[in-house]
Amino acid sequence: MDTVKKQMFSLDSYRMECGREIPVTIGFETYGQLNEAKDNAILVCHFFSATSHAAGKYSPDDTEVGWWDALIGPGKAIDTDRYFVICSDTLCNIQFKNPHVITTGPRSINPQTGERYGITFPVFTYRDMTGIQRELVRSLGIEKLVAVLGPSAGGIQTLNWAVHYPDMMEACVVVISGAQMPVLTSLAYLQAAIDVIALDPKWKDGAYNEGEEPEAGLHLALSLMNLAAYQYAWYDDAFSRDAKRDVISTSYQSVPPFVQKFRGAVSERMLPYDASHYVYTARAAMMHDISRGFASLEEALGKIRARVLMIPCTSDLLFPPQYSRQAADIINRQGGRASYYEIDSPNGHMAGVVDAHLFAEPLAAFLRGQDIT
Amino acid sequence: MDTVKKQMFSLDSYRMECGREIPVTIGFETYGQLNEAKDNAILVCHFFSATSHAAGKYSPDDTEVGWWDALIGPGKAIDTDRYFVICSDTLCNIQFKNPHVITTGPRSINPQTGERYGITFPVFTYRDMTGIQRELVRSLGIEKLVAVLGPSAGGIQTLNWAVHYPDMMEACVVVISGAQMPVLTSLAYLQAAIDVIALDPKWKDGAYNEGEEPEAGLHLALSLMNLAAYQYAWYDDAFSRDAKRDVISTSYQSVPPFVQKFRGAVSERMLPYDASHYVYTARAAMMHDISRGFASLEEALGKIRARVLMIPCTSDLLFPPQYSRQAADIINRQGGRASYYEIDSPNGHMAGVVDAHLFAEPLAAFLRGQDIT
């Protein structure tokens, strides 16, 4: 695949679910070629902490590739010799400090004031995100997508597409996700993250300056999310206890080596992140409930016209498989067409990203129009 | 059962694993009668946030009974017509403000200084706790216990008894626990709790005054633990989402009703708790590794002479069943006698406390000397 070019999409004004209107600018990437009929496009939506960089490299020297590079490329499950693939950065993208990310959020300058928005930036929802993506897709001249798909928060966006713009895609694939954010996940990893960042004295209600950021709060918030991303045995191996190196210090502040190792891993991961963007994204994830605006979950999922494929992972601790099963059942009970393909991996929730080879084949078949039973 | 009388046990000096020696005073309760041979005693160890009040009532007007009252009493699985049952308050008992709790910890007065210990109080381990309990048991003239048992942190104490004092009990029952604190649990619910409390500006390194306590930090810490105590469907029901009541406010600070309800529940639960005792207890739980001091986990568990019954719960998110299975297997591989009885309940980890009826029969049989297969 050729190196990837980052592109930009702007709207002078977008009206959000909360009622506020703001100008938005987001980055996006594309892989493959849009055909003349403009009917070979696939939209990929990224997960919580990711960016639009779903595949390929920005330059030949890059050591890393996009997060779903295993699926997206010439001859791969999402075949860029056949499809035109789009992926955009979310609003309030957490990786605000990543030079490749283009986003609008609390750290952006409010054109009306010339100052950072801070927490005057309106709370966004993933429904807002899909509305903005729809404008991006239409700006490219595309009226109907072959598919919309994504893992985790990418699955949340996919479901929003399926429910709110039911005629704009033929197929949807919802990986490691569900129709409503589980209450446990909402409270333990999302609301807790917001509360932890807000507890940091440096948070200053989002008005912190560069270099004076609430790093302790953000580190803790990210720790919580990271600890749901895999599963028990994975953590036992990755940060293994070693009682021979435990020092029963007199002080509660001294920590054993496995804690130090984990803290170091989180600190590294945290480098491109911004705390207020983390708060807003956690908020959006927590407020995910596809039934909002409908009389019931059944009514909401009943709006879907696309073929749907739910792909959960057995050991997922953020979105356990029962939520995918429930969504598929509700869709099918109402005459919809939902398939279910569960993957089993020791990587928990992250299997939806790092073990994409486990569902590449059924995904490719599904995109080609085959049923997955 | 007669109303329960709170008793007190003191040692002028106890040498802790960390090397410090301090005077300790803890409360304890007993149910039933110690026989003449002093060979009918059972020690029950309490879980993380509990107290010595394992059964019965302090007064006839009490609305609540002890946490394992379903198991402990005349004719019950732990039959007080037959056994003399002891339960003690832990060091640094979290319910410092509970008038029935007698404990020693950072909020206690250091007799040498006349001031609260604060964080000069030495970090304790659950091994220390069992050493102190052993002195209590011996002070009652008891040389060998019929059994030691408990759920969760009570199981941790039980395993410490079994490994370090192998000749002092005939049987051990380890409920919803394991030989080492899982790394995920250690990091997500225990170290995170310590870090969250320490982040609260009112923490002041444990030197807060009454009325100026780090409540926000403690509330968050307790929230995290509470969110692992049950399991996904339980939370979905207890604090149900209701999209019709969601307000997509512009402000990140407004929370939906299910979050408010959860916060209220945590605030209520928090009333008798102390933040520094929470830190120390979280620390003790996190440092649970029965292999400490041995060449390996195998060697440690190989020290056990007692019959052992492991009782995990299928849906446990703090100590998933594989940890109990692993401990039982290691004991049996080395010629020990470990049985395994898994309960299935929608109550997750808490089933070991609130669903005791699910294992009352095998427990009673096991205490009577029968094998559980």
From TrEMBL, chains A, B:
One of its GO terms (cellular component) is cytoplasm. InterPro entries: AB_hydrolase_1 (IPR000073), AB_hydrolase_fold (IPR029058), HAT_MetX-like (IPR008220). Residues 109-352 form the AB hydrolase-1 domain. It comes from the Bacteria. The keyword Metal-binding does not apply. Keywords: Acyltransferase, Amino-acid biosynthesis, Cytoplasm, Transferase. The keyword Oxidoreductase does not apply. It is found in: Cytoplasm. The active site is at 152 (nucleophile), 316, 349. One of its GO terms (molecular function) is homoserine O-acetyltransferase activity. GO terms for biological process: homoserine metabolic process; methionine biosynthetic process. Its EC number is 2.3.1.-. Its main location: cytoplasm. Belongs to the AB hydrolase superfamily. MetX family. HAMAP family: MetX_acyltransf. Homodimer. This is Probable acyltransferase. It comes from Aneurinibacillus migulanus (Bacillus migulanus).
